[in-house]
């Protein structure tokens, strides 16, 4: 029987079905133990992970029998995909399965930051009445700048259209014609910085996007936008975004992802209750509904792969 290792949480029903056809070892916290992975990964033909399991070359070199990696999510920066290509290890992400959840996170964060919900809630609960002392804004009429125009960005667009927002996007891999079909104008990265009231990031982390948002980037922003990153940590320089907020280059930010996860305590020490910001623990794409979709998708793709694979 084919052996499958699952290193992070998965929907119980999907796990139950997988266990009927495969010898499944489910250790949802084993991602923390790289020594275990190095020692045991050679026993498995398949492994299913989320974003915390680091499948780098030093681990994959030990995976002599590994044929398949199922990714319960979209990003692949925790997997050495180049090594996998060279060694015929198939990598299957759950493309599009958590897009609705992430898009809703972007919309809710946009509204919360514009309405300054966190600040007003804190003061009201403290017995104050900040009805006029804190200025708030409408989403209607704003300019949304999308960094990247993939599946999730398109979901964001679909939702935000209800608010009569103008949307522009920077994505060197998408044509102007395709964006125009969605009523979105393709612009340069510099245009996003100068025009947008809201900037939402939807790109992978790679050499080109590492610290795409740094001190120099923030200084070019004209409209004091709010920044939302539900993509990958490391795209934003966390020291620089704090400085940008304090210097009034931006009016707020929502971070769901961080360069180091859990988030660095030094970073957290600089977050105060009077800051217009939202911090969440990499959960934009993790809802009960999306977990079911992602798990079922990878379950089906795993069955499909090994049904067609010839040893």
Helices and strands, in order, run as: EHEHEHEHEHHEHEHEHEHEHEHEH
CATH first level of the largest domain:
Alpha Beta
Give the distance, in angstroms, between the N- and C-terminal Cα atoms.
Answer: 12 Å
Structural class: alpha/beta
Principal-axis shape: elongated
Strand order of the largest sheet: 8-7-6-9-10-11-12
Number of DSSP helical runs: 13
Structure description:
The chain has 311 residues and is an alpha/beta fold. Helices cover 37% and strands 15% of the residues. Helix 1 packs parallel to helix 13 (288-308) and helix 5 (99-115) crosses helix 7.
Condensed summary:
The protein has helices spanning 12-21, 34-40, 57-60, 81-86, 99-115, 117-125, 151-160, 176-181, 189-195, 215-219, 238-246, 265-269, 288-308; strands at residues 3-6, 23-26, 46-49, 68-71, 90-93, 143-147, 166-170, 185-186, 198-201, 226-229, 252-255, 277-279.
List the helices and strands and how they pair.
Blueprint: E1 3-6, H1 12-21, E2 23-26, H2 34-40, E3 46-49, H3 57-60, E4 68-71, H4 81-86, E5 90-93, H5 99-115, H6 117-125, E6 143-147, H7 151-160, E7 166-170, H8 176-181, E8 185-186, H9 189-195, E9 198-201, H10 215-219, E10 226-229, H11 238-246, E11 252-255, H12 265-269, E12 277-279, H13 288-308
């Amino acid at each position: 029987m084919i052996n499958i290792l699952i290193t992070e949480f998965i929907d119980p029903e999907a796990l139950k079905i997988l266990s009927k056809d495969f010898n499944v070892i489910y250790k949802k916290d084993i991602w923390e133990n790289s020594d275990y992975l190095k020692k045991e990964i050679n026993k498995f033909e398949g492994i299913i992970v989320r974003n915390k399991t680091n499948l780098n070359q030093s681990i994959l070199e030990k995976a002599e029998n590994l044929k398949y990696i199922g990714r319960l999510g979209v990003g692949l920066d925790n997997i050495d995909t180049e090594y996998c290509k060279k060694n015929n290890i198939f990598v299957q992400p759950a493309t599009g399965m958590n897009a609705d959840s992430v898009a809703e996170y972007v919309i809710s964060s946009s509204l919360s930051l514009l309405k300054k919900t966190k600040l007003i809630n804190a003061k009201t609960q403290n017995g104050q009445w900040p009805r006029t002392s804190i200025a708030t804004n409408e989403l209607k009429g704003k300019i949304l700048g999308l960094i990247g125009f993939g599946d999730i960005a398109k979901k964001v667009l679909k939702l935000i259209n209800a608010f009569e927002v103008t949307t522009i996007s920077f994505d060197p891999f998408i044509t102007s014609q395709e964006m125009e079909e969605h009523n979105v104008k393709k612009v340069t990265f510099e245009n996003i910085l100068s025009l947008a009231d809201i900037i939402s990031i939807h790109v992978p982390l790679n050499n080109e996007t590492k610290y795409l948002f740094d001190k120099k980037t923030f200084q070019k922003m004209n409209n004091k936008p709010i920044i939302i990153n539900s993509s990958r940590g490391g795209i934003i320089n966390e020291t620089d975004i704090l400085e940008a907020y304090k210097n009034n280059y931006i009016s707020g930010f929502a971070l769901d992802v961080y360069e180091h996860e859990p988030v660095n305590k030094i970073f957290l020490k600089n977050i105060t209750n009077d800051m217009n910001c939202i911090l969440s623990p990499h959960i934009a794409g993790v809802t009960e509904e999306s977990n079911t979709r992602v798990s079922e998708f990878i379950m089906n793709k795993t069955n499909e792969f090994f049904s067609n694979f010839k040893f």
